[in-house]
Amino acid sequence: MDKKQRTYLVTGGAGFIGSNYIHYMFDKYDDEIFIINVDKLTYAGNLANLKDIESRDNYRFVRADIGDREAITAILKEYDVDRVVHFAAESHVDRSIKDPEIFVRTNVLGTATLLNCVKEAWQQEDGSFAEGKKFLHVSTDEVYGTLDEPKEGEEPTYFYETTPYDPHSPYSASKASSDFTVKAYIDTYGFPANITNCSNNYGAYQFPEKLIPLVIHNALSGKELPVYGDGKNVRDWLYVMDHAKGIDMVQEQGKLGETYNIGGHNERQNIQIIKTILATLQELLPDDDPRKANVSEDLITYVTDRLGHDRRYAIAPDKIKKDIGWEPDTCFEDGIRLTVKWYLEHEDWVENVTSGDYQKYYEEMYAGR
Ligand code: NAD
Ligand code: DAU
Q1: CATH code assigned at 187
Q2: Active-site residue numbers?
Q3: 18 lies in which domain range?
Q4: For 228-257, how does the pLDDT look when each residue is reduced to its tens digit (9 = 90+)?
Q5: Which pLDDT band holds residue 354 (cuts at 50, 70, 90)?
Q6: How many domains does the chain have?
Q7: Is position 1 within any domain?
Q8: Which among 240, 318, 334, 354 has most CB atoms closer than 10 A?
Q9: How many angstroms separate the alpha carbon of residue 321 from the centre of ligand 2?
Q10: What separation in angstroms does the CA of 209 have from each of 200, 212, 263?
């Protein structure tokens, strides 16, 4: 008899990290797995990210809200789900500052509803959970707050799994709240879950409201590159496929109930990131490409800072490395080249997602800054 395919319920699989994760999983496991992708298709969800996956027999897409108890329960009744990987969220800090409520609805209440549906589907009569059922909650390093810049002669500080939560933005507060809800399920019901807290991702299919794709897109069309504050805020960048690998390794090899930080020790100031992108565009664009003349550091424009802007993020990935053996495969120099190249080759994708609603959002977000 054929071995049973392991069945995954992936939430938010049409978004940036979720779609890269689905590609990673089919590349790695091919027919050994079945994936049900549940996504509401907000402005950030795009089925074009999964075009080459759509026709697979071992993939199904369901358009649903994670907060829709009936829809989620129906899926869990139809399929014997072995793994849940929960990406679905409102993910953009600037949007959370403008409209915090949807972040509470999706990230907090949505996660609570999803958790409860999965608990009901997986819990046995004696209250225990069957062997092999696992839930992974994808979270962020932003829940830990902010770090100071290291002073001359002092050791830099990092986010560890034991660092107290101290979220500042409505986005990170909603993610912290969802993390605590997962932790409560682990402690109260013995719910079989892990939490991963990852640093900033970059790569293909990232919506151009986020720094890296926004800079690529604006530079190609000769638009201003808005730098918040002094441009010296630090983020710790990780190539999205390394994150996908980390999620899979934590789910298969991690100890249930534990949290793992995922990051690759790649701290950069925002202004350094912008200059690297401009240099990479100059290098990759052929001389006869008319867009090349647009790409210039003159586009860099300092604008009003983000409210409550966290100064520095930096993950200590010691635990995931020691306990699970995860390390990133892609250094920043290679990852950023791959990313810039992908955006150059997929202008139609960018065109598609930047038309309509996003255009309106962009104009509102940067008006008067
Ligand atoms: P994204 O905004 O690109 O994608 C989010 C996806 O969730 C979209 O497909 C959207 O349609 C879907 N979605 C939103 N609300 C939903 C709902 N109520 N029901 C069902 N689907 C819904 O986000 P991303 O950058 O891919 O982030 C994915 C996850 O990873 C999030 O939980 C985020 O907090 C976390 N994370 C992101 C980063 C990063 O750098 N992007 C880093 C660490 C952690
Ligand atoms: O750290 C993980 C987090 O990284 C994830 O949890 C979030 O979902 C993800 O959006 C990301 O949050 P950031 O706020 O760090 O990413 P963003 O790309 O929005 O901004 C990166 C840095 O660049 C930040 O310091 C703000 C700055 N920035 C951003 C934009 C969009 C600018 O200077 N100008 C801009 O136009």
Answers
A1: 3.40.50.720
A2: 141-142, 171
A3: 6-363
A4: 999 999 999 999 999 999 999 999 999 999
A5: confident
A6: 1
A7: no
A8: 240
A9: 25
A10: 14, 9, 22
